[in-house]
Design a protein that fits this description.
This protein is mainly beta. The chain is built from one helix and ten strands; from the N terminus they run αββββββββββ. The radius of gyration is 15 Å and the shape is globular. The mean pLDDT is 82.
Length: 150
């Protein structure tokens, strides 16, 4: 299951990347701290099956080919050492009273990926994504935390 969530996210973004659809994406705000290339340093995956959490899977063997590049034109280039090429999609960065979020793709469909920004400084980006789905009638919650360095 090594890098599986990262690959899953990349595959989902490839699917959405076939046709970029801006509908449903919240109005973006400019954030110069977010702009640039962020190299993936660790991925922590905690899966909860029907109320029973597994021990965290911590992945740290990433290369310089594992990155997200946030561009000023609100596109994001996502690269993975497990796949060939770079995927390009839209993103929005939003700040509300409850915190900051990054949405990649179309947030109004299941293909949109929503991240909560836990930390954003000039050198560090930590974001979290929670996926809740039913698998063979069992509720499965996958909590993924991605940690990046500039």
């Amino acid at each position: 299951m090594k890098k599986s969530i990262f690959i899953l996210i990349a595959v989902v973004i490839v699917i959405i990347g076939c046709k970029i659809d801006k509908t449903g994406i919240p109005a973006p705000t400019s954030n110069t701290t977010l702009n640039g290339t962020w190299y993936l340093k660790s991925e922590i995956i905690i899966t909860n099956f029907a109320g029973f959490a597994e021990y965290p899977e911590i992945i740290t063997n990433f290369t310089t080919k594992d990155f997200y590049k946030f561009n000023p034109d609100f596109t994001v280039n996502i690269s993975s050492s497990d796949t060939t090429g770079t995927i390009t999609n839209y993103y929005s960065f939003n700040t509300t009273s409850s915190g900051q979020t990054i949405v990649i793709g179309n947030a109004s469909t299941p293909a949109g990926i929503n991240y909560t920004v836990n930390k954003l400084t000039k050198d560090s980006l930590v974001m979290n994504n929670i996926i809740n789905e039913a698998n063979s009638g069992i509720n499965v919650i996958t909590n993924t935390t991605l940690k990046f360095a500039h």
